[in-house]
Design brief:
The chain is mainly alpha-helical. The chain contains nine helices and two strands.
């Protein structure tokens, strides 16, 4: 078994976040720590499991409706290292109604733990493989690394700041101030919405989704607005014809 801390990737030099933001965002950069183990292998993940395996999800249909772009940032990393990415929840996900029916069936009651993170199908698979209930998934513990929430203390930060300063348009500062204010409001709303949802779920068993009140384009900080372009500027050298 190989374990790693979710910020161990910071020990890796050569702008580690660049290839991840070039594919979407830096959310999955923590998996960079395992690059020496993945060549020629299959990486299984649980992306989209919150939609498919949650028995209380009310948005059930035969279309693949994602809630975010998690997992997408693995694209360049996967191509460079040479592994296959298989997000297990996507297997049969267009039969969502059938999966939901199984999750809600009485036969799955022994693997239901209640609360806001109840995944009876996934739990049954893992517990029947011998993993004790106390050993996993009682609460959601996200490991995603978001640049905007806590900028990296690495060479990537200095490189990005230099890139952004050299490409910033004149007279845009006032827009960034407004963007930053709306971002702070969105974070405040998001944190308190999560608390309210946990209370409603834990106390009265009511599962509701509280929508964000700030427009989506302002829910990421202004100072990461050019991360994608910066990532491309670093990664594109891989595709240069010599």
């Amino acid at each position: 078994m190989h374990e790693a801390g979710y910020r161990d990737y910071l020990d890796i030099s050569d702008l580690p976040e660049a290839e991840f933001v070039a594919s979407g965002d830096a959310g999955d950069v923590q998996l960079l720590t395992f690059q020496n183990l993945l060549n020629g292998r299959i990486l299984t993940t649980g992306f989209h499991g919150d939609k498919i395996w949650d028995p209380r999800n009310r948005k059930v249909g035969d279309q693949v409706v994602r809630g975010d772009n998690s997992g997408s940032s693995l694209g360049e990393y996967r191509l460079r290292v040479g592994f296959v990415h298989m997000p297990i929840p996507f297997i049969g996900c267009r039969r969502h109604a059938d999966i939901q029916a199984i999750s809600q069936s009485p036969e799955m009651d022994p693997w239901r733990i209640g609360g806001s993170y109840d995944r009876p199908i996934a739990r049954r698979i893992v517990e029947e493989a011998g993993v004790p209930r106390s050993g996993f998934a009682r609460h959601k513990l996200a490991t995603a690394v978001w640049w905007g929430f806590k900028p990296p203390k690495s060479s990537s930060h200095d490189s990005y700041v230099a890139y952004r300063n050299s490409h910033r348009r004149a007279g845009i500062q006032w827009r960034e101030h407004i963007h930053s204010l709306l971002y702070r409001i969105s974070r405040f709303w998001w944190r308190n919405s999560l608390r309210a949802q946990r209370v409603l779920s834990g106390k009265v068993g009511l599962c509701i989704e509280i929508p964000q009140v700030v427009p989506r384009q302002f829910t990421e900080p202004a100072d990461q607005s050019q991360l994608f372009q910066w990532g491309i500027s670093i990664v594109r050298s891989r595709y240069t014809n010599d």
